[in-house]
Amino acid sequence: MAGDNIFVGLDFGTTKICVVVASKNEDGSLDIIGLGKAPNDGIRRGVVVNIDSTVASIKQAVKEAERMSGVQIKRGTEGVAGNHIKSLNQRGTIAVKGGREITQKDVERVLETAAAINISAASEVLAVLPQQFILDGQSEIKDPIGMTGVRLEADVHIITGSVSSAQNIVKSCEKAGISVDDIVLEQLASSESVLSDDEKEIGVCIIDGGGGTCDLAVYKQGAVFHTASLQIGGRNFTKDLAIGLNTPESEAEKLKIRNGCVWMPLVDEDDVIEVPTVGGRPPREVGKPVVTQILQARAEEVLQIFKGELQYKGLLDHLGAGVVVTGGLANHEGMEHLASEILGVPVRLGRPDKVGGLSDIVEDPKYSTAVGLAMVAARKGHQQGNKLSGSDEKAFTNVLGRMKSWFGEFF
Description:
Elements: E1 6-12, E2 16-24, E3 30-39, E4 43-44, E5 47-48, H1 51-69, E6 75-80, E7 86-95, H2 104-114, E8 123-135, E9 138-141, E10 151-162, H3 163-175, E11 179-185, H4 186-194, H5 197-202, E12 204-209, E13 214-220, E14 223-230, H6 234-245, H7 249-259, E15 272-275, E16 284-287, H8 288-312, E17 323-327, H9 335-343, E18 347-349, E19 355-357, H10 368-380, H11 392-404
Parallel strand pairs: 1-6, 3-19, 6-11, 12-17, 17-18
Antiparallel strand pairs: 1-2, 2-3, 4-5, 7-10, 8-9, 8-10, 12-13, 13-14, 15-16
Helix pairs in contact: 1-3, 3-11, 4-10, 6-7, 6-8, 8-9
């Protein structure tokens, strides 16, 4: 199959590596033609801690995706998350001499001015996402090019991240034979696959819960206004069950997948679950309400922290479209009920629903990020082709250069 319309997204999760292959149709729509996934223990909370293990997982997931799609994967768009990711809102201002028409160069200049912030030597600006432009006091302008004025301002959302963390992602891919086109913040990638343009315009919050982190992004008037990451994920839910039920983590994970409920009103008090034990002892029966109480307590913690974050930023009252929960977190039964009660806004579960082809395979919320990454790759034109070459350092420099040119993306 020709590579000029094939796009790949790679999701680097704490518990798994997921690779999605998409084909672009003549009308611009995307069909999913391949999916590969592999267990991963080389990443902790979005950060590579074991390159060799991560490389092996990437190769396994890529091989599976290649087998399903019939495409040789040479490059892809990767996701990034973790507590090293920071964000802030900033305003930049420039003077337009002579009150002439605003040009593309003026827009680039005001965005560069807004992005001129002091950060540590260990960090880099990963993305500058415009929120609005202001021309001679007139606000809420999305595209000032062609308008006339003397003072141009831009409000932007700036995302920074650890240089070493991003380098290790690129290095892991390069060692696995995959060139990196771009690195995209994971919750923004998930937003591509599960949020509508109307939701982004009215005001919406996406909560993307993965194995190692729970990530948040808030959109208003079609632009990103806030992003945050919480170092709690599905692995914490599993550990809570393992400790609370005195069962191995591997068995607790299976229990969570089969019986993961976080809303007590949905549970019958008489329901019982068989729980494996350790040391060759026979399994025992535990009431399902006990399991639900454990999982609900952890889910409440996550939602309460995010509620506090939204209230502190003054955003909770601006979510006209409510909250969308996606990622593995969305697979807990009753999550929308619990989230709606705690946050006090409408809540729905987000599934990748903007693609065709093997859409039934990737409709699970846990694939939202990988599908979104493939969609970003398609929008930016990062199709399969000749593999890029060069050292890891050069590869990272090229990626960083492209990431810094994200002006206008997600707006």
